[in-house]
Every structure is written in C-alpha cells, then in structure tokens.
Amino acid sequence: MDNWQRILQVARREHRIIRNRPLYFMGSVGVIVFCAIFFLTFLHGGLPHDIPIGLVDEDYSTTSRNFCQQLDATQLGEVIHYDSFAAAREDMISGKISAVCVIPEGMNEDIQAFRQPKITFYINGLYFVSGALAWKDLLTMVNLTNGAVQRQVFRAKGYNDDQIMGLIRPIDIDTHQIGNVTTNYNYYLTGILLPGILEMIVILVFIYSLGAELKFSTSRHLLETSGNSIVTALSGKLMVWTLIFSVIGFALIMLLYHWLHFPMKGIVFNMYIAMFLMILASEALAIFIIEMLPVPRLALSIGALYSVLGFSLSGFTLPIEAMPPYIQGLAAAFPLRHYYLFYVQEAIFGAGFAGWWKEVIWLLCFLFVPLLGLKRLKNAYIHQNFPKE
Amino acid sequence: MIMANKGYIKTWLSNWWDVFSHELKDIFSDGGVLLIFFVAGLAYPLLYNVVYLNGILSETPVAVVDEAACPDSRRFIREIDATREVEVAAKCINMAEAEKLMQERKVNGIVYFPKDFGEKLARNETAKLSLYADMSSFLYYKNAMIATNFVMLHEIGQIQMERYSLAGMTEQEASQVVKPLGYEDNNPYNRAFDYSFFLISAILMIIIQQTMFYGMSLLVGTRKERNRNFSSLPAHYGKYGIMRIVLGRGGAYWLLYLGIGMYIAYIVPAIFGLPQRGQFMDILALLLFYITDCVFFSMTWCTLITRRESVFLLFLAMSPICLFLTGCSWPTVAFPKFWKVFSYIFPSTFGVQGYMNLSTAGGDIAAAGFQMRTMVLQTIIYFLLACASINLENWVTRHIDTIRDKRDDLAQKVGIDRKEDARIIKGA
Questions:
Q1: What's the CATH code, domain A51-168?
Q2: Measuring CA to CA, which residue among B11, B7, B6, B15 is closest to residue B251?
C-alpha cells in the first residue's frame, strides 16, 4: 500500500468515527448554525433606535414641550416623562433608561430674555452603546434648539434665510464612514464574530478528534491504519476535517458577502483565501495543543481558554493599541487577529494582495508550529501513557 | 424505613451531609474540574482585566489634508491635535497620500479642508470640511467624530461672535445670542466612556456562571462515563430522596462559589481600581441570589452532557452569546422579541445587570430589585427542573438497554452498520 492509499484509509476511518458520534456534527455544524442565526437576527436592526431617555420638565412651557416632542421624534430617542428627578435617577441607575434630561424652571423665559439657561443631562455610560447614542441625541437637540432661537433673532432683524444659515452655521462637517456607511453594528460585529466562532470550533473539535484516539484507546489502531506514520495519520484526519471546516467557512463567506451583501470594497474571492488560511492555522494550533498536552480533557480546557481570548485579542472592538504593550505582542498568536487584519485590507480598503500579504505569511507560519511536537504525539499514541480522561 | 428510629429530620440531614461531602470530595479529586474552577475562575478575571486595563482609546492618529491653508484651517488643526481623542499624525499634500496612510493603518481617519474653506468663511457662508473615518473599529470613528465635532462647535462659537459683531450687535448681545441655551452633561458612572468599566463588570459575572456550568458538566460527564450509564448518581445515592441529592450536590458548588464569587465581585475590581460604589451587604445579597440561581441552572442543563469533554464542544460558544444577552453593549430595547425571551433562560442576564447597577453605578438594593425578583423566580423554576432532570436520568438509567436497542435500530435504518464501523475504528 502506498502512502496515498493509507491517507485515504485514515480518512475513511475518520468518516466512520464522525458518523458514529453525533457530537462531532452538533459541535461543528450545529454550533455554527445556531450562532449564525443568533448574531444575524440579534443585530439585524444594524443601529439601535428608540433609546429610552427620561425627561424631567420643570418648565412646562411651549419651548420645553417643543423640545420634548422633537427629542421624541428623533429616530434615536424615545422620551419617557418623569415628575421628579429622583424617580428618573432611580430608573437610570437600574438601567431602564439610558439618560435623564432635566429642563430647568423658567427655561422659556430665560431663553427669551437671553439669560442663558442650562439644560442638564445625566448619561448612564455603563450600558455602552445606548448611553453613547442617547448622549449624541441630546447634544444634537440642544444645538438644534440654539439654532432655532438664533434664527428667530436674525429673522426679526430682517435677514434672509441664506444669510442666516451662514451666520449661525459657519462650519459644517461632512462625515464619511469608510467601509460601513450606515454605522451598522451587524456588519461591524457579525463579520468578525462568526469567523471567530468558527476558529473556536476548529480548535475544539480538532483537539477532540485527536484526543478521542487516546481517550478510547484507539490510537494504536490509527497508527496501524496509517502504516505507523504520524504524518500520514494526521494527513488523513486533516483531509476530512479541512474539507468539513472549509465547507462551513465558505458557506459563511457566501452567506455574509453574497447573500446578505455585507460591505466589500475588494473581491469576495480573496475572503475565501483568508478563511481557508485561518482554518488551516487553527487546525495547526489544535495539533500543537494536543501534542504538548496529550491528555484530552486538559488539552480541551486549554483550547477553550485560548479560543475565548481570541475575540478580545483580535482587536476589532477595543483596538490593540489601547491594550498594554505585552498584550499587544500576544495578539499575533491568534489566527483571528490575522483574519481581521486581512478583512480590513480587503473589505474596507480593497487593497488586495499588497495590503494583506503579511497576514498570509503570518497565517502560514502557524503551519510549522505542529512540527515541534510530532514525535511527542506519536509516542503518546503508541504508549498511551497519559491519563485518559 | 431503615433509620426510622433516628427520626425523619435527622435522617434527612445525615443523608444530605453524605451527598454534600461526597460531591466536594469528587470536585477536589478531579484535576479538570479544579482547572476550570480555580485556574479559569481565579485567573481569567485577572487576565481580562489586564487586557482591558487602559480601556480608553486615546490619541487616535489622523492625517490632515489642508488645501485651504488659511489661518482658520490651521487653527482648527491645532485644536484637533490638542484633544484627548485625536492626534494629528501626518500632514499630507493630497488625499491620495492620506488614503495610502489610512490603508497602511498608520492613521485611522482623515480630515480634509477644501480649497474654498477660508474663502467661504470670509464670505459669511457655510464652510465645509470632510472627515473620513476608518470603520474597522467603531472606537476610531467615535474618537474622530467627537474630536472634530467639539472643535467645530467651539470654532462656531468663536466665528459667530465675530460675525454677530459685524451684524451690529454689541459684544454682550452677541455672546447671549451665540448660546441662548447652554447644557451641562454628566456621565456619572463612566466619565470617559471607558471600555473596561462596562465590559469587565459583565465579564466578571459571566465567568461565575460559565465556569460553574463547565466544571459541573465535566464532573457529571465523567460520572456518566465511569458508571457506563446515564445517571449522574453514584450507586449509593439511590436510596436517598431527590431533594436531598439536589440540595446536597448544589450545596457543595454553592459553598465553593461563595468563595470564588466574592473574590470575583469584591477583590478583582479592587485590584484593578474598577469602581466599587455599592454597599458591601447589597452586593453580597445579589451574589447569594445569583450563585444559587447559577447552581440550579447548571444542574438542570448539565443533564444534557453525556461525556466528559462534550460540554466545551457544545456550549463554549454560549459564552459570547450570554455576553450579548446581558444588554451591556447592544441595548435591551433593541433586542428582537424572541431573543429577549431567550435571554430569560440565563441567570447571567440578570446577574450582570444587577451587579452593574449595584456595584459599578452604586445604586441601593432597589436598583437591582427587578433583577433579584426575577432571579428568585428563575431559581424556583430551575430547582424544580433540576429535580425533574434527576428523575429523568434515573428513568434513562433503568431503560438504558431499550434505549440502546432503539439507537441501533435507528442506525440500521439510516444505513449505518455500527459493528462494521467499530471494526474500522478500533481494529479487530
């Protein structure tokens, strides 16, 4: 039997194992399907709207009522009225509303008389997105109110509307959001979270697949099938699993960029390359972890602790620059980090090969890591001298 | 009754003690469980704190393309550079150069002043400048937005003063018209929108729930493997009532997590200087409710685990999902209906909210009233479910042979030959 036939034999054996244990199917396809449904429907709105903002109106004037109505009419905010600041504060601290806005007594009169009254806001910044959005909404409303008052003054002085615009709005900013025009959280988060979940699945399932040989004492038979070569054995297993993971990964890319039209400045085809390389790198890491710790339960626990960290250290929410320097270096050890940087170059800037070739090299470097411990794994497979559980 | 002479209560207590101490012994003799409880439970909170230590992104580099080259644009640039949020890292000749810097990620934003910027200001028209923000992380965008907008508002005030004076107002009149309505903004719980304050508070509570669930599932999975059946009850538990088993086993985890939970809720935030504004006793009350809830939650769901390692493969991905379901980032009001109901399954949804309101925001116990009431309800439901699930496991244990036959039948129908498969997998 030549080597190719042996690899096929191992692959055939792996196929039987997968068929016999529903856990493999549930842990790979089941988990990713659930997560894809979750994130895509959960963040479907793209940007939250109707954030509850508490309003304490101590003025009861036309101006204050007008302010409330306009604030309520914005897409971002929804006004909830309170009689006292104490009641509003209690609801803010318990997270029911994201901000409290207090309109002082006599605001209308003070504005008319140019005594410059002050509106006070309190924002609950612990509920991050809603707090920030409520803040933005309130600031916009105050600036608009100021503009309205100024316009009245200048109209009374006989200026026409064009002149007034120049007077009250001397500078304007035209904001362009590169790569995500509508500030859509679904595009922003799901585009990285789902590949991150896949990275987690690859690491865990592949560690389990290799560890199960030890756990069920079938490793010697695996080596028998592969002609006593650990490389052949791993190649056979990799063949099956790379196929399965790639199908899942490609389905994800297809779902996100073809079907749901997530923003893509470059070419979708290149994302398949990124996904494939990330899968290979994650498999390499899985092999490395089980080589170093040929005890299935420990290897899985380490794999779990490692892959959960990948989300934070990919730097797509809090950028890496904001983390301590010794953590920044660590980020390079996560395939998801390189996938993210690849994605930024391809999807946001459309830079192509010139932009992402470094990430490709990084991901390829992961492939050499398992070579360090092949011998150790083979010995463990032969002697089965580690605790089995 | 075997021990009728001792009386019901005494028997109950001695049985409870048996179960309780047996469970503790099992926990401490299992390396994997200890790894999850103590290494993950104690070290993970520290690790996450280190990662999010600074929590604030400052001095986001931006490039400036100043085609106007007038005093106004130069002042604007200096003022942007002076903000905490943004740093002017490069002054570029044209957009192409700035775009290249952004693509190379040397800058995360571009501020562009068109040629007519100064002229328009001189002609009393609206001068436009453009901001291009890199959306690869929303924090870049947020920084660039905040910095340019605040500088713009400040500049507008200055320019308005000049123009209103030209329009014939006295200085006092002008300053009154520039800002007829002022504002004062307070962000009392998270002044600078620090990332670590909200995320760490949530992660800490989630670690309690998840490590307890993973650890307990590991132990249950091991027992099921060792006993070669699906029961999580060691043989000698058989004679006890279900209440004793649930409360005895639960008590062991409850006791352990009282320690781990107090470490996570009080000590970790103190080490890293996170806000601890709550009353000690209020937080303790919340913690007791939360841990009790988590114990019965874990006991119910670990029924699904039949093998030692399978919990990670099946449920690790629930950790990030739980984080989203707490509403600390994506607001609860924006949840789709279904997922809102789904979030009621997890104790963490309420534990995190309660902890944030009490400890990080510093509310009194009423601020977590809703969360605590819901956790009590959850605890009752999960307690009943935990009892039911042990009943179910017992039933499965008694009917294990029938179930195996059914499974083999099913396999045959789908066309899987289990014997042949076993030969290929394990050898003769």
A1: 3.40.1710.10
A2: B15
